[in-house]
Amino acid sequence: MTERTLVSETTVEASLGEPEVVGPNPPKEIQGRSPGQLAWIRLKRDRTAWVTGGIILLMLVAAYGAPVLAQLYGTDALEQYPELLDGRGIPLGFAGIDGNHWLGVTPVIGQDVLMQLLYGIRTSVSIAIVSAIAVTAFGTIIGAIAGYRGGKVDAVISWVVDLMLSFPFLIFALATVPIITNLILGGPATRPLWLSASMLLIVFLLFSWTGAARLVRGQVLSLREREFVEAARASGAGMWHIIFKQILPNTWAPILVSFSLTVPSLVASQAYLAFLGVGIGNPHPDLGRLVADSVGSMQLINGWFLLSVSGGTIFLLVLTFNLFGDSVRDALNPRSTK
Predict the structure, then answer these.
(1) Whole-angstrom distance, CA of residue 61 vs CA of residue 63
(2) How does residue 161 score in pLDDT terms, banded at 50, 70 and 90?
(3) What are phi and psi of 316, to 5 degrees?
(4) Assigned domain for 44 exists
(5) Which end of the chain is less enclosed by CB atoms within 10 A, N or C?
(6) 146 lies in a domain?
(7) What are phi and psi of 279, to 5 degrees?
C-alpha cells in the first residue's frame, strides 16, 4: 500500500470519526429580549436620561426628605422670622441671607426660602404625579372605548374631546375654584392640604384627559382588526376582556410616554394657578405662590432674587421632566430620532 493510499484512508477515517471542533470557544446562543428590555437598554445608554434622571432623583429625595433636612437645618417651612424684616416687610440685608437662612426669607411673612422651596417641590410634584396617573388612566379608558366600539360611540366621545379642547381651562379654573374654595371648603386659610390637592385633581381631570384619550383611540383603531383580537372575539371574549387583556397591553409604550409628558405639564399648570391665587392656599408652601410673593418687591433686589430662585426651580422641574420624557419616548420608539 502506497503512502498516498494511507493518507487518503486516514483522511476518510478522520472525516467519519468524531465531529470536528471549531475552536476552544463555541458560539454562544442568541438570547431574545422583550421590547421592554430593549427600551431599558436604550434608556440606560442615553446621557440625557442619566443627567435629567439624576437631577429629578436628587430634587425628589431632598423634597420628600424635607422633614429630616428641616431638623438638621434648624428651621421649618412655616416658622416665621419677623426680626429679619424691616418696617415695610422687606428682608434685611441681601434677601435676609445669613448663616441660618441660606436663601434668605420671604417678604412680609419672613419664612425660610429654602424650606419653602423643598416643601413646595414636594407639593407640586405629588399633585402632578397623582393627577397624571388619574388623567392618563381615565383618558386611556375613554380612548380605548371610543376606538374599539367605533360608530356613534366614537363620534360622541370625539365630539366631547373636541369640546373640552376648545374650552378655556384657565378661565374656568379662575372662575370656579375660588367659588368652591370660599363657599364649600371654607376659604384658603382653613382647608387642609389634601382637600386643596383633591380640588386641583378634579380640575386637572376635567380638562387634561383629552390628550391621552386621542392617543389611545388612534392606537386602538389600528389594533382592533388584528388577528389576535379577532381570535379573542371569535372565542367569545367580551369587550372589557379584549380591551384590557388584548389591546391595552400592546399600547403601553405610548401610554407611558403620555404619562411622562403629562407630569411636567401639570407641574407648570399648578404653578400658574398658585401664582394667580388659585390652588394651594396658605399656610401650605407652594412654588407658584413664592413667585407671586416676589412680584410685590420687584423694585428691590430682594424681589429679583426670590423670583430667580423660585422661578428657576419651576423651570428646572419642568425642563428636566420634559427632557426625561423625551428620552423615554426615544427609548420606546427608536425611529423617532431618525
Answers:
(1) 6
(2) very high
(3) -65, -40
(4) no
(5) C
(6) yes
(7) 130, -135
Number of H helices, E strands in the chain: 14, 0
**Which residue in 253, 259, 245, 265 sits closest to 219, CA to CA?**
253
Indicate which CATH number applies to the domain containing 318.
1.10.3720.10
* Burial group, residue 73, by CB count within 10 angstroms (0-12, 13-18, 19+): middle
CA–CA dist 150, 25 (Å, integer): 57
Average pLDDT, the chain: 83
Instruction: List, for residues 60-97, the tens digit of each pLDDT value.
Output: 999 999 999 999 998 989 899 989 888 888 888 888 88
Instruction: Tell me: pLDDT of 9 over 60.
Output: no
Rounded Cα distance, 53 and 30, in Å: 31
pLDDT at 56 over 80: yes
Residue 89, pLDDT score: 81
Give helix 35-44 / helix 301-332 axis angle, nearest 10°: 140
What distance in Å separates the CA atoms of residue 80 and residue 75, rounded to the nearest whole number? 9
**Contact at 8 Å (CB) between 332 and 39?**
yes
Give me the domain span that covers residue 215: 66-337
The predicted model scores a pTM of 0.84
Confidence of residue 183 (pLDDT cuts 50, 70, 90): low
Please report the DSSP string for 87-144 in residue order. TTSPBSTTTT--SS-TT-B-TTT-BBHHHHHHHHHHHHHHHHHHHHHHHHHHHHHHHH
> What is the radius of gyration, based on Cα positions, of the chain?
30
The residue to which cell 470536528 is assigned: 20
CA atoms within 13 A on the CB side of 94: 6
Q: How confident is the model at residue 5 (pLDDT cuts 50, 70, 90)?
A: very low
> Which among 307, 309, 275, 311 has a CA at the least distance from the CA of 294?
307
Domain count across the chain? 1
Task: Say which residue, 293 or 143, is predicted with more confidence.
Answer: 143
